[in-house]
Specification:
There is one protein chain. The protein is α/β, with parallel strands linked by helices. It has a single domain, classed as Rossmann fold. The chain has 6 helices and 5 strands. α1 crosses α2 and α3 crosses α4. The longest helix is centred in the first third of the chain and has 14 residues. The chain is globular.
Amino acid sequence: MGRHIREFGLRFDRVLASPAARVSETVELASKAFGRSFPVEWDRRIYLASSATLLDVLHGLDGDPAAVLMVGHNPGLEDLIFDLVPDDGSSPLRDEVEVKFPTASFAVLELPVEAWGEVAEGSARFTHLTRPRDLDPSLGPELVS
């Protein structure tokens, strides 16, 4: 996934992550595959957080970073996507998350705000989704047609 993020071309100014051991391992492996290490802000609030707590974390960001990578857990991250992306049928990617948002998935949301404190429910545009099975079909369930 780290290699995919690098190839996708997304650059982020901040990495916020849960201090859980599994998240730490994921960040380490992804940064090796990405080709560089990242300064990570370990935030206990992200550990098993609800969508509301994750939104509070975003609202509290200082310095107005242009892009943030958040690494955490489900169901919180999945619920954050559901809260931020409108459920109006305009986002096929949101529909995909409703089907499955497995461990190590990578989602990109664009937020039309000047400051992180302005992030509001239903305001995001979902622009990219990659799940591990999208990169290696052997990692996902067999699809029956």
